[in-house]
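Entry 14: structure prediction run for Leucine-rich repeat domain-containing protein. Input pasted below.
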Amino acid sequence: MLKYIYLPSKIKTIAENAFYFSGVAELKLPESLEIIGDSAFYVCKNLEYVEIPKNVKSIGSHAFKSCSRLKTLVIKNDPEYIGDHIVSENTLIRCYKGSVVDQYCQKSNLNMEYL
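Run finished. Output tokens:
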């Protein structure tokens, strides 16, 4: 089972379903990352914390959905696109007040905390 993912520093895209149901527990996303595809980490039940790099422009639908142990998703930027149901209801999203992510959380009725 895949436990740790440390992606190369030049990677720009994580494809749709790339790590679907992989069991990954620890994830380090590079600053070069711009796109997280639909369901990229769907059902990664061991993930507990994810920090989205500042250059990410797109977070696909269900990107971190059904990650039952994912307690916190930190998004420090304003992606141009945020898909539907990026996380499960029990996940806390940490973001900046007044950001696109803030509006998304309020519209989707998700748990949110300001950075």
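Notes: Residues 58 and 81 are 5 Å apart (CA to CA). Will compare against the previous run tomorrow.
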